Please model this.
Amino acid sequence: MKGKIVWMLMSCLMAAILALASCTPSVTEEEEEVVKPPTEEEEVVKPPVEEEEVVPAGPEMVKLSLKKLDGTKVAKTVEKPQYGGAITLQYWQDPQGFDPTSGLNSVIYNGNIVWENLQTGDWYRSPVGTNEYGFNHFAYVPPIYRRGAIAESWEYTDPLTVVWHIRQGIYWQDVPPVNGREVIADDVVFSIDRQRSSPRISPKYWGVVDTVTATDRYTVVEKLKKSNWFHIDDTGDANCAPIIPKEVVEKYGDLNEWQSLVGSGPWIITDYVHATSANFKRNPNYWMMDPLFPENQLPYADNLKMIWILDLSTRIAALQAAKTDVLCDMDWIAYETISKTSSQIKWKGYPYPGGSVSIMPRCDEPPFDNILVRQALLLAMDDESILEDYLKGYGLLHNYPIMSVWGESLYTPLDELPTEPTIEGSRCGVRELYGYDPDKAKELLAEAGYPDGLTFQCFVGTTEVDVVSLVKAYWDKVGINMQIEVRDEAVKSQLVQALPRQYHGAVQQWAMSAFPFGVWTSEYVTLASRNVGNVSDPYIDKTYAEMAAEPDPDKRSQICKDLSLYALEAAYKVVGPHATKYNFWQPWIKNCEGASDMSFWGRFKGATYYWVDQDLKEEMIGKR
Model:
């Protein structure tokens, strides 16, 4: 009985609990997540954040608004130049001394890294600027593309007086014995007098000068013996009178020591190893500013190195291996090698002023005193085949005695050359002399009294045998027997420079069209320094004198243009096709565009304006 009562009570209690549960809202029970602070070993995971793309910083670009001489506006966007880094140049010939009166061209083009002249090329007109002049022709720079260097301005006050106004605030490099003193008019007088008194310097530059005087601290006056309107052009050029300090000559005498290489230019020499290399550092007191960025003092690079490599293949390999930065004055072999195997290296071609063939016959003695014999030499030589076979098409048939780069005021294009004879005794127009006509060559030889041909000696240097042999093969076909006499270059040089001439027959000697007006006083006027064929033509002598005395530049140019046609028809020189030459530079060398020569023999002065993209260099070769 008692058991039943307990069971009934338990049942009622269970029923009450169930009834109560049915009236309460349902709740889903979840376990709470416990977040613990991370330990040192655990990575803290943060919510992802949307990141912006990081674009590598590129070169800073600057817009330039320029104007050509004819008023044409030029808009360019260029990289802003950067300072620092080093530039390595290379060439094939050591300077062989440091005296600008030595008469050695190698001294001038190496020394002009340090020296300055009265004038220089105007970089504003270069391919980097308005692109009016290439500054890569290894030649004379026309006056319109020049600017003042040590001279700020100049003038003819009368036909016999030239006045140079010396730029104030130019200082010699801060090295002994000048220690950074100012360049003044007395320095210019000393340099010119030293040049014109040297027996090793051609009188064509200084023979016209009577006196040179400093009338005050910044004015130099030249009195001329006779009127010569080319004198300023000659005096201002790098080939003529680099300005050097008197103290250096007093200390070093013959200037054979490299420490004597002191100037006012952008680079200071720091060491020199003969026939190997020279090192230079930036001149921190250099006066010139970049004409395209007038707020920028030149030069841009901290250091400059010049190395000399004679072997062609080694020069090419040094550039390809990035051991050097700039390589100038190279032929088609270098172009084909570099362009095909090193596409990143930049290049620019230009017409070279020297002919591939430049045979100078003795025109003052038989048989070459006869114009018909001289014209026969040209007709019997196949210029087009030489251009294609020897130069592989890289060149021009006609680029002498006036270069094509001088433009229509001086140069007559090949297809505009006269086709009919104009000189007494001539049987050919100028254009005909660029053709190949062996039959007519034989006719002219017979008319001149040589029906069975003729024999003569031709003296050549060791590097010239191949091209002269090519010409010999053509001449053999018409009975012209040229006997090639090979001489060491130094011996041949002495042979052709000696007066009176020490050879008969002919000589292979570079015919140079680098000066449109100076070519006459160097190669054609009677007794000129490079007139190795002893040309003595009264018409050329008279016409040049008239040209030099003509004050109107346009009339001077026309006289020069006409005289070049006369000289070509007279056939005083056997000049073959002119090669195209090439300048190469690494992609990290900026502000170059192949420009290098800021004056005649002013080779490498363009490096003053180059700058080094050190980031690009590091990216490409792993070092700055």
